[in-house]
Every structure is written in structure tokens, then in C-alpha cells.
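hey can u check if this looks right to u? its 350 residues, i copy pasted from the old doc so theres a chance i mangled smth
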Amino acid sequence: MGKHIVFIGAGAVGGYVGAHLARAGEDVSLVDAWPEHIEAIKRDGMKLGGSQGEHVVKVRAMHMSEVQSFVRKPVDIAIICTKSYDTEWAALMIKQYLTPQGYIVSMQNGINEERIASVAGWGKTVGCALSTISVNCFKPGHISRYQQPGGDRHTVFRVGEIHGRITQRVTELAAILNKVDTAKPTANLWGERWTKLTANSITHGLLGATGLDNRSVYMERGHAHKLGVKLGAESIAVGRAQGFELGTVLGIAPDDWYGAGTGDAAALKRVQDGLAAWMATLLEPSQSSVGRDVARGRRSEIDFTNGLVAAKGVEVGVPAPTHAALTAIVKRIDAGELKPDPKNIDGVPC
């Protein structure tokens, strides 16, 4: 018998990965709090589009009120794909339905393994860093991917244990996720996590604050671009101060990000060339998840992306003032005090 894999949060990431696994023959259940989304999947199947083709997938979809039925169908692998601020309750809800060998995986923005472990224990906690899957749930039952698949060029799923050893379960989970896109077990979960966080934090706060899309950061050479480079450099510095081994960020070496942010003209040229190459892998520009949440009037995850970099910078004595400034602006938008506007970043020094 295959593993029963449950996605708590069936939005962009959870819905896309879960439906593709169901399409590949895995035993998948999707759980979400958006009633219209679940009803659309139950009625019409999950409609997937974008860079991996057009598919309609029949997959088990469940409202939160139906989770108790897992007492009759226990969960082998629970993958949390909620917003980071919903991590603890999602872990608390699903842990009681795990099999004795079952475990919980964070497949989220930010770094949430400690939150999961506080509920379920470290032995039942696994991490999975997604490197640029770039998906959007744009209406109930419809998810599109606008990033080209990683394939042989780029590993999308990096699955790791908290302690860093390669175990049978992370090897098995990587093999399962490889049915969606390239996956590997990693002995460097924390470094992979911070690398992903750095990539997110280059655009999350900026696009949330301004309402712009990622072209303003990656391709144009204005104030948003300069701030994006500085955000990358600050995050690299904070990650290294914590002892993390960092990989390429948007295909660009961490040394180049740091050099570009500290005035190295040659490094800046390499960053700009790398960003142009990265944009060529996208089917369309993106607003980032924070930008989309702000546009839809939802609470953003800014405390768990730019805010996390700023907070960790304080802990390790490596200031990240640009992250702190963008976090403060987006939090004011979350509170209804501001609206997204390019003018919001005019006073942020670069």
C-alpha cells in the first residue's frame, strides 16, 4: 500500500503539488479552509495549468470540518502548506491522525520547523525547501505554474531532517516529490531554508509595499532594484552569521549578492545578468505571495520573511535595516493604515 499523503492547505503550493502527486497515482487528500475552492475541486477536479501543461485531476478534497474522518484513514505524511502564521494550529489538528511512523513536513515560506516541533515533537518534523516552484491559485479549483520546471537544470524540492542526516524517510519523500519535479534529500536543510528565505525576501516586502511586480526588482534599474540588491546582501550576511551554508539565490552566487550590496560594481553586473537570465525562465511576471495577499486584502506573511531576517539579524548582531523598514511598511498595509504604492519605499535608503 502507498503512503496516505495529506496536504493541510490546498492553495497554490499544496494544491499544485498534491494534485500532481494524485495524477501520478499517489494516495492524496487535500484539506483547505476555503469552501468554494474545495467544492470546485470536488465537483470539477483540480485544474492545473502553466509550464507543466494543462490537466484536470480528480483528487480527494476535504473541508476542515471533514478532517476527523482520518480516524478511519490515518495519515503517513502530513504536509503543511498553510500561511506561516497558521502553522501551529495546523500541526495540532493533524498530529492526532498520524500513523505511529507518520510525520509532518513544512512546505511553506519562512522557517517553521521549530513551530511544528513544539506541537508534534522534533522526531515527527521534516523540512522541505521549495526552490522557485512559482505557482498561483487564481480562482477556486484553478492553479497555474509560471516557472519553467527545474528538470535536469535545477532541483525544486530539497527534503531534509532537522539533524542533517540522510534518512530513509527523506529519501523516500524525495522520490515521491520527484514525480512532480526534481527533488533530492539534503544534509543542509537549514542552509537550504535560509537560501530560499533570501530569495523570497528580495521581493516579498518590496512588492507588498508597492503593488508592483518582480520586473521592478529584477529588470528595471530604479530604486526598487537597488533595494532588492541590498535586501539580498543583508540576508546573506545574516544567514552566514548564523553559520548556514548558502546556495545560489535566483541562480546567483551568494558572494555576488553580498558584493553587489556593498558596492562591488563587477558583482552588481553579475547579479543583474543573473536576474535577466532568471526572468527568462518565467512565463509571466509575479507579484510574490506577499504582493498577492496584500492585493487581495489578506494578512501577509511579512513577519515570516523580511521580518524574520530582521529579527535574526538583531539576534546575531548583524543589522538588516532594509528588511526591518520593508516589514514595518507592509505591516501598516496589513493594518489598513496604508495602501500599496511605489511611493511607500521612497524614504527607504539604498
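The mean pLDDT is 96.
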